[in-house]
Fold these 3 entries.
Entry 1:
Amino acid sequence: MSKTRSVLCAVLALAMIFAFAACGKPADNGDKTPQGTEPAGTQSPGASGEPTDALPTSPTGTDIVYNSTHLVFSMDEFDNRPRQIQPGTELNFLAGNDVPSQLPWNCTSEGWLWSNVYDGLLYAYLGDVTDIRGSIAESWEHSEDYLTWTFKIREGVKFHDGTICDAPAIVRAWEYTQQATPANITNFHIESWEAEDDLTFVVKLSAPCAYFEQTLAGIQLVPVSPTALDMYGIGDNRAAIGTGPYYISSYTSGTNIQLKAFADYYLEDKMPSIETINFPIIADENTLTMALMNGDLDGARLRSVEQYYNLSDNGYEGQIVKTIGGANPLWLNAKKIVEFQKKEVRMAIDRFIDNAAIDQLINDGLGIVGDSIWPVGTPGYVPYDGFYYDPDEGNELLASVGMTAGDIKFHTTVPDFAKSQFEAIQDQLSKSGVEITLEIIEAEANFTYLRNGDWSLQVGSTGYSSTGPYLPWTYILKPDALIKQCWQDVYDPDLYQKMLDEYDLMVTASTWDEMLEHCKQLTVYQQEDFGALAGIQNPGFVAFSKEFKGVVFTTDNIYLQAYYMYV
C-alpha cells in the first residue's frame, strides 16, 4: 500500500516559491483526518450504511452540519447572515473548471456557476427535495390529475439586463429552451405553457411528472432573458442572463469568471452579500496550493488527499473540511465484452475487486466503500449485501460456467481524471488473473466513447443527484439512451422488459414517493443483476479562509452557494 504524499516546502526569495517532494507518512498518522471531531447529533454514513465518525467540526468548534444535501460551516453564521450587499467585499474561489458557454443548456454540470446566476420558478432549500420553496413563483398549485400546474409569479422580478421576468417573459424564455434543448421539455411531459395574465403562468403536462417541482428547482427550465436571446441567440454568452443573486460581469477564457451581486435581486433568503466573486481557473495543483497558502485564493475544493495533507501539514491558516463525493458505481458493458453477458462473470468481477484496499491506496482510507450504486442518505439509495470481496468465491463462480479468470481479457479507455482509480482496479483484477489493458484519454474524448458504447468499464454516475435520483435512468436505460449503461437487453430480455416497465411507471407516477418506489426498484434490478457494482465515494475537501462566514455548499457535487456568504 502506498503511503506517500507530497510535502510543501517554502523558499523565500523575491516571492514565495513552492516545490513539492515525496516523503513517507509518519507511522502515527492515524489522526490524519481533518481537524476536530464530529459534532454531537450529526452522523456520516459508513460502508455498511451505519454511522461513522468521519466528518469533523471545524478547528474553532463551529457547528459544521453535513448531510446528503448540504454542508454548512456554521448554522449560527448562516442563520444570522446580513442579507444585503456589503460594498467592496470580494471573494476569490476556485472555479470548478473553465466554462466556455455559460448558458444553462450548455453548463448543466457547472452548478457552482449556474446556481448563483440563474433562478428557477422554484428552489430546493439547502438542496432538500422535501423542502421545495417558491423562487420566481411565489405560489403554485396543480389540478387533481397533476396535469395542469398554475404558478403565481412574484411581482417585480427582473432579469440582470432589466427585462421584467413576468409570465409572458417566461413563456418566451421556455420557447428558447425548447429550441436549444428539446429534451428539457419532453422529458418532463410538458405539452404546453402559457401566460394567463402578467403574473399567472400555466403549464400543461401530457402525463403526470412526479418530479416536476424538483425539475423546476433545477437547471433544466431556468428562464433566460428573452430580450437577450432575441438579440444574441441561444449560443452566445452575451445572452447568459438570468434572475439569480449574481450576474456574469466578465469572462476570460481559461483564466477567470467574475460575478457581481445583482442589486435588484428579489428573494430575501438568497439575497447576496459579497459584492464581487472571482472564480479563477487554475489547472495546476501546485499553483492552486500556493494560491491558498499565500492568500491569493480565499477558498477551493481540493483535488486530492495529497493536497489536503500539503495544506494541513504546512500551516494553512484557514479551515479544511472533509466531505464525501458522489456516487462512483462500476458499470460493465456486456455488449462490448461478451464474457460480461454471464451473471457469474459479472459477480466474479465484483468478488475480485477489494474496494477497501483501493480506498486505502488512493484515498488513504478516507472514502466510503459503498453497499449500493447510489450514496447512503440519498433518495435512490438501496443497500445490497451482495457486494463484497472474496476472490475464492469469484473463481468458484467462474468454474461453475466452465471458465477461469485467465479467460477474461479486455481493453478499456479511461478518462484522465479516473486514471488512479482504474489503475487500482486493474491491479486488483490482475491479482486474480483477469487481464485488462488501459488507454488513458482526455475527459472530453471519453464522452464520445460513452456515446458510442465503445467503453468496457465505466466508473461514475450519469446525472445522479439527491434532487434527481430518477435522472440516470433517463440517460442510461432505454435502447436509444444518450449514454446506454444497462445491457440487460443483450443477455436477459425478460429482465430488461421488467426494467422498461418500471421506468414507465417511474416517469408517469403522480407523486414523488410513488416515483421513488419505482426508481428504487430499478436500482434493485441493476444491483442484483450485477450490471453495475457498488464503488467508492471518494473523499472531498474544502479549504476556506476564516475571513468569510455563512459558507454553504450543496453536497452532491460540492457547489458553493455564494449568496449565503458574508464577511
Entry 2:
Amino acid sequence: MTPTSPITKSDFLRYLECPAYFWFFKKKPQVLREQELSDFDKELIKNGKEVELWARKLFPRGVLVNSREAAAIKETQKLLAEENKAIFQATFQAENLYAMVDILEWDESLGHWIINEVKATSSKEKKKEEQLNDATFQYIVAKKAGLDVGRVNLIELNKEFRKHGEIKPRELLKITDITENVKELEKEVQLLIPGMQHLIEQEREPLPCDCIYKSRNNHCPAFKYLYPDVPDYSVHDIVRIGLSPKRLEALVEDGHYALEEVPEDFELTEYQRNHVQVAQTNIPIIKPQEIQKAFDELEYPLYFLDYETYPTAVPIYDGCAPYQQVPFQFSLHVLRGPGGTLEHYEYLHTDPESHPMIALANTLTNMMGKEGNIIVWNKKFEEKCNEDLADLMPDGAESFRDYNQRLFDLMEIFSKHLYLHPDFKGGFSIKDVLPVLVPQMTYANLNIRDGSMAMNGWKKMMFETSDESEKESLKKDLLEYCKLDTLAMVKIFEVLEKPMQPVKIMYSQAKTVKNV
C-alpha cells in the first residue's frame, strides 16, 4: 500500500467539497484540472496573510513557529515546554491528521488553551460553514495531540471599522467566540474522519463524483477526468441552473448532457428555456420594441461611465472600510445628442500621497452635467461606488446621490433577455456581448484586459515600482483599458439603436414556470 501524507485541514475541506477530488489530490494529482490563480485570487491570498499579521499584533509576546511539517511539530512542542503563552502557527499531528493553528493562546485564568482562527473576512452574517469546519478540524486534531483546548475564537475584520489615521488592531479586528458552534459540529466531523481515512487508503480510483449534479462553477478539478463525455458547454451551464438542482438532477439522470438534448417539454424557468432554445436553434431572441421602449426613456446628454477600483482587506485611505472598493480611475464618454460627436474624458489617480476618491470625485463632478442619463454596465457596482463617494465627501454627496437616480444599466438589455444570442452562452458580461455585437473591437490586444489586472496594475504603479518608464507604461495600459470599457458600451448602444427585425422563438410545447 502506497503511504500517504498526513491529512491537513485543507485536505479535509477538499473532502467536504468532493471526496473524489480529495482522493485525486492526494493520490493522482496529475489528472486534476490545472487551476491557475487569477490576479484576484492572488490578491485574496495576500490579504489573508496581511490580516494574519495584524491579528498577531493582538498578542505582542507571541512566538512564531518558523519551520514546517515534522520540524514544525517538534518546534511547537518545544515552545509549549518553554511555557510560551501565545504561539503563531502552532502545529500538531495525531492519527495521521495534521493541523496548523493560526494563533494558540493560553488562558491563564481558566487554565486552558484557546485556538484563534484568523480569517480575512468581514461578514456580519452567520459564520460560514467552511470557517466552522476549518476551526473544528483544528480543534479535534489539537485535542487528539493531547492539548487541553477550552475555547475557539474567530478573528476577522470588523465590518464597521473605518480608517482614521493610525490603525489600531483592536479596532480593525473583531474576536468572536465560536466554541459552541465548534462543539456542535465536533461529533459530525469526528464521524467523517474514519471515512476520509479509509478512502485515502484505497488504491483504486473512486467512483465518479456527485459534481455531475452541480452547476459548472461548482465542479471539482477532477470533473473533466471523471466525466470526459460531458461537453465543455453543457446543461451545467444553463442560466441559473444552480438554483434549480432538481431540474439539473433530472436532466443528468435521463442522460441529457448536451444542451441540444434538453427535451422541449422539460420544465424550465422562462430564462432557462430561452437559453436552451437559443442554443438548440442557433437563432437569437431579439425584442426591438422593448429595447426601443427602454431607450425612449433616456434623456440626453448620455454619459457612459466606468470606474476602476482597488479593494484591500486593511484600508489604505482614511474614511474607508475593509474591502471597500476604492475608485482610482474613471472613463467617461459623452454623447450630447442623437448622432452627435462623441466626447471622451478620463481620470487616473497617480499620486501615492493623496486620497484617490477625493481627487476622482472632484474631477468627475466638473465633467458631469446636471441633466441626462448615466449609462453603466452592472449598475449595482457603480451605485455602491457613488454611495461611498457621497459618504466620503459631504459637500458633494448630493451630486453623487443624484447620479444614482440617473443610472441606466445597459447590461439589463441582455440579462433580461431582450437580446439573447447563442454565442453569449448564457452570459451577459460586456466581455460576452462585445465580441458578438461589435466583433471588430477586442480586449485581446491590451496589456490590461480585465478589472483584476487593472487593480494589480494600479497597485504596482502606485506602491511597488520606482521605475518611471514602467509607471508610464502601466499608466498608458490602464487608460487604454478603462477607455475601451466605456467605448464598448457606446458601440453596443449604437448597435441596439439601429432598426432591428424581431427574432423570437415560439415554444408551443415548451413548459416554463415563473422565472427565479
Entry 3:
Amino acid sequence: MVGSRFRYSKWDGSQKGFELDAFDVLGQLTDDLLYHGDPMASLRRLMQEGFEDRNGERVEGLREMLEKLRQERQERLENHNLGGVYDEINESLSEIIDTERQGLEDRAALADMQLADPDTSASDQRNAELAKETTQNKQMQLGMMPDDLAGKVRSLQNYEFESAEAQQKFDELLDELRQELVKQQFQDMAGAMENISPEDMARMKDMMAELNNMLEQRENGVDPETEARNFADFMEKYGDFFPDNPETLDALLEQMAQQMAAMQALLNSMTPEQRQQLMDLSNQLMEDMDLNFEMSRLGQNLQQMFPDAGWQQSYDFEGFDPLGMADASRMLQELGQLDQLEQFLQSATSPQELAEVDLDQVRRLLGEDSAASMERVAELAKMLEESGLIQNKEGRLELTPRGLRRLGQQALGDLFKKLDPSRIGGHDIERAGIGHERAFDTKPYEFGDPFNLHIERTIRNAITRTGGGTPVRLTPDDFEIEETERQVRSSTVLMLDLSLSMPMRDNFLPAKKVAMALYSLISSQYPRDYLGIVSFSEVAKELKPADLPEVSWDFVYGTNMHHAFKLSQQMLARETGTKQIIMITDGEPTAHLLPNGQPFFSYPPARETVEQTMAEVMRCTRAGITINTFMLDPDAGLRGFVERITELNKGRAFFTSPQNLGDYVLVDFIEHKRKLLQGRGR
C-alpha cells in the first residue's frame, strides 16, 4: 500500500487559507477597547473603518462602502441624461409617420400612373382620382400632427393608416409603451406577463381596487385575522401578478411603494416639459379611466404608509448618453437602491444590523469585494460572542472573563513585540534549586504552585484511587508536590493616574495598556503574586482587573497621590511577600484629602498637598513598600517631586514617554522578579 505523499514549504506570507477568527477580531479592537472600554462602540468603529485580516486582505468598512455608493451614483448621473425617454418615443413615432408617408407616396404614384394611362377605364380613373385625393388629405393630416407625444399618439390612434407596415409598427409601439409604463409603476407585475392584454389591464384594475379596499379597511381598524384572511384570498386570485410571492400584505405594499416611488423619481428628475409630456402620454395610453383612478388612489395610500420611500427624490443627470424609457426605469431603480443602501449604512449602529442587507443587491451595486466585506463585518459580534469573548447582558455587550484575559494577553503581546530581547531575556530561571529550600513536606498540587512533583506519593494516590492494576493512569487530582520553606511572592499595587491631563497629552491609552499587560503578565506567569490597581485623580479608587477595560479618565481637575498612597498601603497591608507600588503619572500632586475626607485641590500645588503626600511616602517606606515611579512627559516640577520620593523611599524613577512606557514597566517588573528568585536561590 502506497502512503500519501505531501510537500511542505516554508511559510512566506503568500499562502492563503486562514480565515478570520474571533481572536483576530479582538486583536483589531485592543487599543480601542482599552481606550473606551465599550465592546459595542469598538465594534461600531471597526465596522466604520474596516481592517486587514491575517492574510493582509482588506475588509472594507462602511465609510469605504459609502464612498463607493457615492461614486456609483455620481458616475450614473455624469454619464447619462433623461432626454432619451422623450426622444426614443418621438423617433419611433417619426419612423412610423415616415413609413406611412412612403406608403402614401407609393399609392399616389400608382394613381398618377393610372391617370396617365389612356387605356384606364373611366371607373378606374375615378378610383385613381379618389385615391390621389385621399393620399393628399392624409399627407395633410400627417403634416398637421401635434408636436407633443400625447397629441401625436392620440392623432395616430384616430388615423386610418394606409400602410399596413406603419399600422403594425404603431400597434407594437403602443403595446411596448403600455408595457413600459406598467413596468415602471409595477415592475414585478410586468415581469410576470410577457404581453399585457386588455383582459390583463382589466384584472389589474380589479386587483388595485381590492388592494385599496384592504388599505382603507386597515385605516378603519380591521381585525388582523380578517386582514390575513382577506390577503390570502387576494393572493389566491391575483398571485400571478406577484412572482416573488410576498407572504404578508405589508411586504407586498412595501415592494409596490418602492416601485411607484422610483417612477415618481423619474418624473421629478425630468424637465417640466418632459414630465408633462410623459404624464399626458401615460394618461393617453391608459385609456381606462377607472384604471387611472385606482392607480392614483393606490399611489396616495402608499405615500401615506411609506412617507420615506423617496417620493420627493430627484436626480440631476448631467451626461450626454440619452436613456430610453426602459433604461431610464432601470437606472432610476438602481439609484433608488443606492439611496436606500446609503441610508441604511449611515444609520447602522452595530454589525448585527448588516445581516439584514440583501447581499445580492450589494454585489450588483458595489461588486463582490464589498459584498464579501459586508458579510464578514456582519459576523463580528456573533463571532466574538460564540467564542466566549463577549456576552450580551440586557442588550449591552460586555467582555467575559475569558475576553478580559485575552485582551490583557493582546496588550502584553503588543508591548513585548516592541521590546529588545536582549533587554528582557527569558522569564524562567534554569538553575536547579532556585526559588525555594526543600522542607520534605508535601501537599496536593494547586494551580500556580511550582511543579516540584513528589513521584512516590503521586503514584500512591493514583493506585489508591483506582484500586491497583497496570498501567497506572494519573489525573491532576493525584499530583502531590514538595513544599518549600518559603515561596518567593511579590505584592504589587499599580497606581494609575486618570486625571484630565492624561488624555490631553495622549498618555491615557499607553498607561491603560500597561495596566492590562501587567495584569495579564502576573495572572498568567506569576499567579501566586498579588496585583492591586488604584486609580487617582481628584480622589483615589480601588479597581478590579475586570473593571479595567471600561475605566476612563475623570473629567475633573486634581492629581491626588496622597489618597492613592494611603489606599495602596491599606491594600498591601493585607498581603505578604515583597511589596511595591508602581506609579504611572504625568503630573505633580495637586490634591490631597482633608481630615473630613473631602478633597482639596490647588494648582500650582499647595505646600500642604506636597507635605501630606510626602508623609504617606514615609509611611510606605516604614512599611517596607518600595515605590517605583514612571513619569510621562515630566516637567521640572514633577521631576523635582519624584526625586524627593526616590531619595526618601530608595525606589527608582523612570523618565519616559508614551511610546516606551511599556518597555520600562514590564522590563523593570520582570527584572525585579528575577532578582528575587536569584536572591532566594543563593
